[in-house]
Amino acid sequence: MRFSTLLKNPADWMQGHGPHSEIVMTSRIRLARNLRGWSFPGWSSEKQRVELLNQVRPLLASLPELKDGFNEEYPSLTKTKKQVLVERHLVSREHAARSTGCAVVIDRKQSIAVMVNEEDHFRMQGIRAGLDLRTAHDLVNRIDSALEENLSYAFDTRLGYLTACPTNVGTGMRASVMLHLPALVLTEQIKQVMNAVSKIGLAVRGLYGEGTEALGNLFQVSNQHTLGETEQELISRIEGVAEHIVQAEIHAREKLLHENALMLHDQVGRAYATLRFSHILSSKEALTHLSLLRLGADLDIITDCDRSLLDMLLLEIQPAHLQLTAKRDLSVEERDSLRAENTRDRLKSVPEPLNVSSDNDADDSALPPESHDE
């Protein structure tokens, strides 16, 4: 599959509708695996990484799930193309910064991605829309099992799978959910919720993982350690926490609708106006306003709005996507201008937000006439 084909076809999870997909945008399972007898990528020579890649890449390409997918070594990809893969959450920022001896294999639906020679020899992930960690696990587990039948993994009967980072030793599994939590942010409850999540040993990260900001009111929640629990136990724990956060966000949305409707409509209306009529938009500003527009669509403040259009825009406004569309490198100013232009065009079909309704907005004609004493 060509890169242009990959870009043209939206991933299943970008336009899917899984459980709680109005709040849980994606579920992801990532497995870290290494081969016995080979140095970890960070300690191996370029020659060793190339040798390992040449050995495993044909095997990956032959698997039924990955056959006819996207399969490229990094030296053949430009910096912009690799950044597009980062923006689509198909590869890590660290992996995209590498070149010789590294590759990525992605299935045609962009639901499975395998990075070769990242921090570990294999970083394989399955992605699904909504709160659907078990299906994501099934996707990646099939790849893992097929590889283990043909390759000798670095495994210890006491410790489990051996990995470059000690926090991944054990199952080698990281389960994560991407949550859209604008109401918890607007009601200033988000810090309290995320502190509670951190206290039970889970990690809270931003849009692109560790060390990144929670742009667009998007937060990643995942396990921090993989030793001492089975894969199913880890999945159940993340599912339970995600369910609690979903309920907190639902209650926060209800509170906004019933107790602060005017502020909510104002926020959504301002976001709509900015996105529809701005001529300069930074990434951060666009993500913030798209988040509020998505909230407005979820709460029917904006009617007949296709939420998948907004989800696609969250990707299309990213810097590398814009540069690939323009077919050249763009300055920050050029990106901000093109981002605004594309957003104005894509949102033409989205109707204006509804006006706030209130029991206090009754028609004056319904009031009794004033008395005038002479």
TrEMBL record:
**Residue numbers spanned by region Disordered:** 333-374
What do the Gene Ontology cellular component annotations say?
extracellular space
Please verify whether the record's keywords include Transcription: no
Q: According to the UniProt record, what class of enzyme is this? A: transferase
Give all residue intervals belonging to the Phosphagen kinase C-terminal domain.
23-252
Reported EC number(s) for this entry are 2.7.14.1
Q: Name one GO biological process term.
A: phosphocreatine biosynthetic process
Instruction: Report the superkingdom from the record.
Output: Bacteria
Q: Where in the sequence is the signal peptide annotated? A: none
Q: Which one of the record's GO molecular function terms can you name?
A: creatine kinase activity
Q: Where is the composition biased (Basic and acidic residues)?
A: 333-349
Q: Which reaction does it catalyse?
A: L-arginyl-[protein] + ATP = N(omega)-phospho-L-arginyl-[protein] + ADP + H(+)
Q: What does this protein do?
A: Catalyzes the specific phosphorylation of arginine residues in proteins.
UniProt protein name: Protein-arginine kinase
Q: Which organism is it from?
A: Phragmitibacter flavus
Organism ancestry: Bacteria, Pseudomonadati, Verrucomicrobiota, Verrucomicrobiia, Verrucomicrobiales
